[in-house]
Amino acid sequence: MNPLNQFFRFAGVGLLVTALHVAITVFLVEYANTNPVQANVVAFICATLTGLVLNSRWSFSRVLSARIMVRYLVVTTLGLLLTIAINVYCAQWGIRYEMALFLVVSSVPLLSFMLHRNWTYRSASQGA
What we know:
The structure is a single chain. The chain contains 4 helices and no strands. It is an all-alpha fold. Helix 3 packs antiparallel against helix 4.
C-alpha cells in the first residue's frame, strides 16, 4: 500500500482512539465515580488495544500476531517515554506547556508511524 495512504489511515485510527480515550475517561470519572488517574489508565489500555487491532487490520493490512503485538507495545511505550521526556524538558526550561504539546503532537505520531511501518509491521520476507 502507498505510504501516504497508510499514513492517512494511521492518522484516522489515531483520531478515533484519542476520542475513545477521552470518552472512556469522561465516562469513568463522571458516571462511574472513578479516580481520574485510574480512569486514564483504563482508557489508555483500551485505546492502545483498539489501535493495535485497527492499525494491524486497516492501516497496515496485517494479521495480528504475538510479534506484532510486542513490537506495537514497544513503539507505543517509546512514544509515551518521548512524550514524558519532551514535557519534563520543557518544564525544566520554563517552556510553556503549549509548546511542549506542539512538540509532542508534531513528532510522536510521525515517529510512531515510521517505526510501525518500518519495524512493527515489516513482514518476515522483508527481513527483521
